[in-house]
Amino acid sequence: MDWTHYRFRTLWSLPAPPALVYTALERIGDYPHWWPQVRSVTLLDASTAVLTVRSVLPYELTLTAREARRDPAAGILEVVMSGDIEGWARWTVTGDGPGTAVRYDQEVDVGKPLLRKLAVPGRPLFRLNHRLMMRSGRRGLLRRLDAV
Predict the structure, then answer these.
(1) Which residue among 31, 99, 110, 137 is least crowded, i.e. fewest CB within 10 A of its CB?
(2) Contacts by residues 122-126 (CB-CB < 8 Å, ≥ 24 positions apart)
(3) Residue 104: phi, psi to the nearest 5?
């Protein structure tokens, strides 16, 4: 097993129309306004951004996200990531009754030296850190959608 390889899946149920959720998620430059763990986003061009993220644990990750797929009809937003983590992430947004089901999938390898050194003993904490970040993101997005 490669202890520096991670697969994440997060499911959110949101009481908002899919088009509204998709629009909020595709505006990556706005993430720091509603997602506290996304500390900064620097847009390099229309399809590339540099993000700095930090959740509960005392370390930051800096990554470049390059758009790989934007398909509003299918409700898919996908990026390829490089930097402290290498891999991809995908949002899938679909209707779910009166609201929206959001699925976040991520598959990455950790490149940051400290996190690689702590890969085995830190793995449960890193997974918890990610879960907490995603839970906070859902709460922030709910607040953002209520404000629209």
Answers:
(1) 99
(2) 123/3, 125/57, 126/6, 126/57
(3) -115, 120
What the chain holds in terms of domains, given with CATH numbers, is: 5-147 (3.30.530.20)
Q: Encode pLDDT of 100-136 as tens digits.
A: 999 999 999 999 998 899 999 999 999 999 999 999 9
Nearest of 33, 34, 37 to residue 56 by alpha carbon = 37
Is the distance from CB of 25 to CB of 142 less than 8 angstroms? no
Cβ atoms of residues 133 and 36 within 8 Å: no
pLDDT in the model for residue 114:
87
Q: What share of the chain is helix, strand, coil (3-state, %, to 5)?
A: 35, 45, 20
- Cα separation of 95 and 69, whole Å? 19
Q: Identify how many contiguous H helices and E strands the chain contains and give both numbers.
A: 4, 7
pLDDT digits 0-9 by tens, 34-82: 999 999 999 999 999 999 999 999 999 999 999 999 999 999 999 999 9
CB 129 within 8 A of CB 54: no
